[in-house]
UniProtKB/TrEMBL annotation, chains A, B:
Annotated GO biological process: diaminopimelate biosynthetic process; homoserine biosynthetic process; lysine biosynthetic process via diaminopimelate; threonine biosynthetic process
Tagged with keyword Transcription: no
Protein's name in the database: Aspartokinase
Top EC category: transferase
Length: 432, 432
């Protein structure tokens, strides 16, 4: 048996009890014959408490010193976890991101990993230790300063280490059982997904699924590192995210194990964190859209969907709509208003009572009936569609925020994803 | 103006207000034209809270992981302090012990400093930054693991850094105004000492004075680094600890500044943390004392005073008494009882209701009346003496614990140390 990397989030190690429970689970993997490397986040609310403290001493909490401060959180959890493991009679050593060889660029608070040189970790596990590594942090190649990786950083640390150590799998432990076909709080009949491809997981992540962040999945895909997302509170199998189903594409184990064949549709995601901006009366000529999105980009705002209708023949004017995080709404409107003379549009509309519903599945590439079924389901549920945007393996629509739960349930049922249905794998439609 | 190292303890940075107050004081030194390097301890109770957490996950809190845990405390305080300084418009960078070049041996929880390579600190201050360094921690030369220096470690960090950076002075900020001629809680008329030699300070520290620990003074003496102990709550001049008085031995500034000439007697220290063990009826022959103290040493107990009386001519037996920390009493008695047959003594007496009073001053070497005055003062105060031990510049006695405050006051007055007396400098006696 080879090396596994396990990652535990802050809610799994929120207190001494949690740390002891996680320690037992880690020791189990070791007893099963694996070499074990563990990536751990800061305990529960530690990071928030440190951020509050920073706010008390300084109005601007950012940069080099903020990273130095926040990394204290993982230092505490990893040392405690190592102690808990030792008290179970197994050897453990904890390592900071710097000691573990997580080399990053110098962009404090949201550094990117440039390289992983896990020599000390490899030596430690080769000597029989369980290695505990601080998530979320690294050391900058240039200045040798401590950096943090920003949101989702601990998951990314785990995947990057797993890749560098040539691990069998990167297990991400969380407080849910895995990735579901829809948010179980909205869709009671949502099913846990046994296996999902990197591509579908990337689309789900960028469409509002919170279990894994886009950045971590992207890293895993680049290095072809299988991820197993599972609960730290149960021993259940969770969701495998990998290029091929365990056992090979289309393989059936026939041993009572669930089929790992990919369903036509992986799941339905939704996201109510975005707002919609419509630029009304844009002259329909080359360069107009470019001007609008240059203005937005210069304000460092990330946009999501972009839709442009054909122009009205009578006026030569068109409307351009796009979605963006609600938190960036004010900034975007301000920037566009300032540039109105230069761009030459009529007016702006801003709407933050919207939500996005996305259907994701590589299967839809070759199943042309999917789009029709999707729109029929929404129509039957009396949900009005305001924007549509599609990719090869995803369809997204924007609706009223009030309609979103109903819409997700309707689509989930229409594609046979409900847990009492047999249709999921065998669905095939006609005419997308 | 040159470089100064300032050290702030946990009580000075216990909360956001404290951190902001300390930040202002640091910026003042910078504005006065100094290069400033700051060594900081963990905030208030942070270290105790971390120790409690460790106790919750593991019965044995020690070793490598315990050091990793505890060093999180300074990481938090130093990052916050750097932020607070930046918000005052000055540049600051924080550094871990490892980044600051504090190289230690591999003895976790009480590592010794082997070398200081402060290249990054020097560069940082040369670039105009205020450098903030985590106290109490280093990195082991051999294993590259994080170590802590044990009790008094932050003071030692400050002195070691000051020596390596060739600083003008190492300022130790604390919650008292300096070193006093006696504990001001016991002796209301205790005086702040303006200057004291390394040697006298070492004797005071090992006799119960808590302001500076022995280890830090020893380090300062070895590298001849002046220490200025002063309050972080006032701008007052504190106590200088150095080989020569500022301005030269015997020099008088005559500019309204207080004389820095060393008094005959530096101060009176007391210590009620020790117990007394008497080994009764030891055969008075070579090797007996060695056997007793080998037994104690093998139990890793540090002893303080040792006294042996002449043996009674009739029996050929003698008594050997020694003092040791009360916390080690049970262990010492156990070890001696086990070895009773081998050593061949009659019985053991254990007494933890004792206290030690010490008079310290290099002046006593050449003033033979000191011992007599000391004993007369105790006698006049009706204090009975149980043990006596002397060094060149110190006399210590053990008395009943109940008598200790009265004894300290009597000695303090007898040597003209009271703050309304003129005698301190001019005292001279006859016949020690």
């Amino acid at each position: 048996m080879g090396l596994v990397v396990q990652k535990y989030g802050g809610s799994s190690v929120a207190d001494a009890e949690g740390i002891k429970r996680v320690a037992k689970r880690i020791v189990e993997a070791k007893k099963n014959g694996h070499q074990v490397v563990v990536v751990v986040s800061a305990m529960g609310d530690t990071t928030d408490e440190l951020i509050d403290l920073a706010g008390e001493v300084s109005p601007v909490a950012s940069g080099r010193e903020f990273d130095m401060l926040l990394t204290a959180g993982e230092r505490i959890s990893m040392a405690l976890l190592a102690m808990a493991i030792k008290s179970l009679g197994h050897e453990a050593q904890s390592f900071t991101g710097s000691q573990a060889g997580l080399i990053t660029d110098s962009v404090h608070n949201k550094a990117r990993i440039l390289d992983v040189t896990p020599g000390r970790i490899q030596s430690s596990v080769d000597e029989g230790n369980i290695a505990i590594v601080a998530g979320f942090q690294g050391v900058s190649q240039e200045s040798k300063d401590i950096t943090t990786l920003g949101r989702g950083g601990s998951d990314t640390t785990a995947v990057a280490l797993a890749a560098a150590l040539d691990a069998e799998v990167c297990e991400i432990y969380t407080d849910v059982d895995g990735v579901f076909t829809a948010d179980p709080r909205v869709v009671k009949k949502a099913r846990k997904i046994d296996w999902i491809s990197f591509e579908d997981m990337l689309e789900l992540a960028s469409s509002g699924s919170k279990v894994l962040l886009h950045r971590c999945v992207e890293y895993a895909r680049r290095y072809n590192m299988p991820i197993h997302v599972r609960s730290s509170f149960s021993g259940m199998r969770g969701t495998w995210v990998s290029s091929e189903p365990p056992g090979g594409r289309g393989g059936q184990s026939g041993q009572g194990e669930q089929s790992m064949e990919q369903a036509l549709i992986s799941g339905v995601a939704h996201d109510a964190s975005e707002a919609k901006v419509t630029v009304v009366g844009v002259p329909d000529k080359p360069g107009e859209a470019a001007m609008i999105f240059r203005v937005i980009a210069n304000s460092e705002i990330n946009i999501d969907m972009v839709v442009q209708n054909v122009s009205a023949a009578t006026t030569g004017l068109t409307d351009i709509s796009f979605t963006l995080p609600k938190t960036e709404g004010r900034k975007a409107i301000g920037a566009l208003e300032k540039a109105q003379g230069e761009i030459g549009f009529d007016s702006l509309r801003y709407d933050d009572q919207v939500a996005k519903i996305s259907l994701v599945g590589a299967g839809m590439k070759t199943n042309p009936g999917v789009t029709a079924t999707f729109f029929e389901a929404l129509s039957n549920a009396d949900v009005n569609i305001e924007l549509i945007s599609t990719s090869e393996i995803r369809i997204s629509v924007v609706t009223r925020e009030d309609d979103v739960n109903e819409a997700v349930r309707a689509v989930h049922t229409a594609f046979g994803l409900d847990s009492d249905s047999d249709e999921a794998v065998v669905y095939g439609g006609t005419g997308r």
